[in-house]
Amino acid sequence: MDQTLLLSKLTARLTTLQNDRSEAQASITAATAQLQSLFKTVPKRPTHSPSLLLSKITALDTRQNTTSLTLNAEKKLLKEKQSFKDSLRLHEKCDQHQLTIDALKSQITDLRLSLPSKESAITELRKSVQKIRLAESLACPFSSLITTTVPCSTPNLSKVIGKGGSNIKKIENTCTVRCDVKGEEEVIEIVGSEESCDKARSLIESITLSETLTIPISPAVSGFLLDKTRSELLKEIREWGVEVRIEKGGLEVRGIPSDLESFKEKFSSLDLIVSYMTLTNPSMGILIGKSGATIKRLSKSSGVQINVSRSKENDNVEVIGKSMDVERCISEIEVLIIEMEVITESEDLPLPIRNLLLLNSGEAIKRIQKTSGCYLKVSGSPKPEASNSKIDYKGLRAEVDSAKSLVLEEIKRYTSSEVIVNVSFDALPAVVGKGGQIVKQLRQAYGVVVDIDFDVGSVKVQSFDGDKRNEAVKAIEEIKRVNHVTLVKVGGTVLPVLLGAPGKGTRAKIMDEMKVRIDVVQESKDVKLRGEKEKVEEAEKVIAAFLEDNYMEVFQLSQEDVGVLVSGKESSINKILSAKHSVEIFLKREQNTLNIRGKKPGVTACLADLKKEIFGSDDIAVTDLKIGDSKGTVIGKGGSQIKEFEKTHSVRIQLLDSTSCIRVRGPPPNVAAALKAVTLLIANQKISVNVPVNESTLKNLGHKGQLTKAILNKNVTPSVKTDSESGDKILRLRGYADDVDEVKRMLDESAGKPLKVKVKMEGETLRKIGDVGMPHWSRIKERCNVKLDIERGDSEGLVVSGKRVGVADALLQVYGYFGFSLSEEFGTFELDASTLARCFTPGDLVIIGDASGVKISKDYTTSQLLLFATSESSEKGSCEERLAKAKDLVSEKIGEWSKMNFVMNVERWCLSVLVGKKGATINGIRDEAGVEIDVDQSSSTVTIKASSSAAQEGEMSGEERINKAKSIIDKLIEDNRVYSEILDLPEDSQGTFIGKGGANIKAIQEGLKDVSFDLIEGGTKVEIKGAEESVVAGRERVEAWREEFEAKNATLEMRVVSVGILVGPKGETIRGLENENGVKIQVLKNDGGDGDSELPNVVIRGERGSVEKVKVLIDAMMVQEEERLDQRRKEWNEQKEREREEYKEKQAKGEEKKKEGEDDDDDDDEEEEGRKTVESQYAAVPVGAGENSSYASTLSKAARKRLNKKNRALVDSSKPLDPGEKGGDLLNFLKSSKDDGRVEGEVIVGAKADIPSMLNSDPVVPPPPGLGFTPNSKEKGKKKKYGGVEKVVENENNDENDSDGDENNYFVSRSGFSVRM
């Protein structure tokens, strides 16, 4: 089909569909407007359903037909029946209205459902029409039109579009396509023929795939490329297939990657460089030439750019271009400057040459100037000691070179008549002589020129007379012979020996006999020998022999090592090594150095042995052990202990004061044994520590104090001392260090300080467990409420501090973590507290640890031994094996200890029997059984320990002795067993039970033998102890006394309905009851405030009969009050019922008149007056709205809901309400109206006092005055705002009923209503 015809048909069809869509949308709009109108006019459907209305009409018909009615009643019935029929018709109207709405909704739905299909057809037609028109605009057939997309990132879209769309328009015009940029999809859509699309795609990809390359070039090269004279080069660069921009900082090139690489290679091949030259001002003038002719010529011929910059001192030249051109240009510049530059040069002249050139008024100088054309100038002093003579040349370079050649010829002629004598530097002073005297003598005697070169050590002799020259040389050689110098290496260690007393004979032989001089070289501490060569060589041999016999080494010592070398006098290390190697050893204490002198082999061997003694070797071990504060113990009195160690183990022990350590030297096994012995000594050492204590602690430190017993249980002996300086009391603790530390923790804890426990471990183990800020440590701190810290230094470990319970829990968790993270290196051994304290001494732990290669410590907090397998003892097996061995050794130790120790629990009364008078009994048991016995009153335990010093040791084993002591104690307890019984005492009866001066308890005890009465548990109980018969009798007496006490001190709790009636006016009633009956009556304030609490509110105390009598009297008072209130409630309900009936009749009359349409002003006035009468009985502001409201605020939200629901039900049912019931106040009668009231907090505030609308039909009247509801006198004279009206409360009389106002204000108190009527 023709493309034009197809376009016209599609356009017509599109127009038709658009018209249909417009008509459908117009129909929807009209139907929607009609529907909105129907919604606005929806008739209000009656409340009752049609079925209910029909049933009511039927009921009314039946009532009309079966009941004799008055005229008014029948009219009322007919009106009511007609209203029900009207309601039925209204139901039919509502139904018809709803049917119309539903029909419109269905019509709108159908129209809306047809719109999507129309929209879809229109969209498709539009696309087809647009495609045909596009094909026509692109001049290609519709069938060959295709659409393709080219991906293009967002940054490249702007490049494809170009400024103002120039790039994309150019692509469209060039390729005859249509391009659509879709930024969100990051593609470019191309529409056109296949060939055109491919061409456009290529152009777009050339833009999107192009990259920017920056080739850094200097600003000078940028200027070179932009120079107009280099336009051909720039044109060539721009034809390399990329876009090129020249910037100051570089060359910016844009194109596809392959073209960029090609451009980069081509540009690099140009090899453009910048070269710099610095010229003097004259040279710059040569380069520039007249009017710049020279520099222009060089620039043009070389193809480079030459830039110059001038200054006062030097001028700079910048040459830019290809490297070959730049090099060629620079060469031409240099040649040009060299050829044309006037130069000035200087040369140093030896004094003889200077004098030669100036001879005969400078004849030689003048000749050279004339021949070369160069200007010459000779300067300097003619004196022999002068050394600054020089010659200056000035002229063109060729002239200067010619003059230099002529001067050189003169020098050669001079040097041919010169002889050089080499003299050592040491002999040169002898040739010169003092003040140059020898040189002057040579010059005068032989008429020669003598020039000494101190730099190279030579003497030049010049003379054109050969004989004189030779004689002078011979004289100089003679001086050399008698001044031969040789340097002998001595060194700083031996030099003092050579110059001192040991070298006196050697020096005399050399200086006096051989006539050789000895000079000292201070810098190198060597000597120089000066004299005849043969004598010097002989003297050198003498010194060599001296040095061989006096070889010396200096050994630097530390301060600690000085003492170990000299201690022992004749048996000191110094004396032993000196005799062994035949050397002399000198100690210099000021420098802490040791000088060893003798033959070299002996000195070397002595030094080697000395180093072994100091630093150790395979045969000699040197080990340090930290002893801390145990210095005195290790040394012993007068050093006896340390000498004993040295003698026993054949080692040397050195005390290091600076580090509180000892250093042990000797064979490795001996050193190990000595260290073990020292460690055991320190571990078994008991220390004394002074601890400041307060008065409270001192009180607990009595002979029988619990704190003293707890300290003794830790194997620590306490004693109280007085500080000699301050006079304060201090507690001295003596025991093992770990036990003393535990007691100090106990004291800190008793003083309210946090418990602080340190788990000692090595630094390597600390590093393994990590920092305390790590998550697992943080969790332990948070769970147990403790602090964790890591202490470094001499005593490393993990510190846990806090309350004891938290610390114990934290330590258990820490050990659990150690068991996980250090499973092969850590273990624990749980023990009871007594075994932990008594079984293991520190020495025992050291022995077990040394045998197993494990470090063991006590933890009193968790009653455990902590075992760490150290890396130092790896030779004793793996960590797991060492831990297992340590646990086996611990178990063996416990088994051995158990055989020699026994702990038995006894009753408290047994302790005094066991001890006896002044300890006589227990001492007898100790002597008889040969054991040690400790009694702990705090825990009621007796510890029996077999004593090695007992008399029966040779006859009985420790276990047999313990069993004997047990049998003696058991028999003693059985023979002295005391019966006891504990009885409860009445509350607050302790003083009465004891009596004044103990009279009562003595009376109870009278006649009873061997019995005691002790108050325990704060005096709430009495413990009777003694013989069985006496205890039984004592119990009967105490029970009788207790019954008598309870009868005289009876207590009764009860609840009364009216506390006010009980108290009476000004408390007269309650005081009368107390005085007449001898009791005490207490009123409790525990009422919940809702009046329905079952808690007692009155307590009566006194004799039992009087208490019961008062209770009967109070009950009678409450019954009488209840009867009075019941009567008042009954009268109030009757009045309420009468008022309700009157209100109903008036309301019925009003309704009849309204139905009949009568306009009776009298009736309306009467109805309004009735309404006012009813309204006047209620407050515009509900009861409790004032600040005295407390009732509603005491109820929970759920309770208020239940209360309101109950009140509404009561009002609707017209049931008389008992004011005494829960919720019986007027507040709970009121019902909130959606239109006329709002809820504020727990009370209802009415905007209008429309009581009939609030109560629907039944009015509620307030209670009459005098029903126990008293007005609130505190409100008198105050301004209150009720229902928007501010009023002043004035009349507060309980008997008056003021009904003049339109409102009555009600307030709620705890006991009832405060009413203003």
TrEMBL record:
CDD domains: KH-I
Lineage: superkingdom: Eukaryota
Keyword annotations: Coiled coil, Repeat, RNA-binding
Cross-referenced InterPro entries: KH_dom (IPR004087), KH_dom_type_1 (IPR004088), KH_dom_type_1_sf (IPR036612)
Coiled coil: 7-34
GO molecular function, one term: RNA binding
Bias kind Acidic residues: ranges: 1158-1168, 1292-1303
Amino acid composition bias (Basic residues), ranges on this chain: 1198-1208
Domain K Homology positions: 144-209, 271-338, 343-412, 415-481, 482-548, 614-683, 898-974, 977-1043, 1048-1119
Pfam families with a match to the protein in the record: KH_1
Sequence ranges of Basic and acidic residues compositional bias: 1124-1157
Region described as Disordered: 1124-1225, 1253-1317
Biased composition (Polar residues): 1187-1196, 1307-1317
PANTHER family linked to this entry: KH DOMAIN CONTAINING RNA BINDING PROTEIN
Protein name as annotated: K Homology domain-containing protein
Biological source species: Triparma strigata
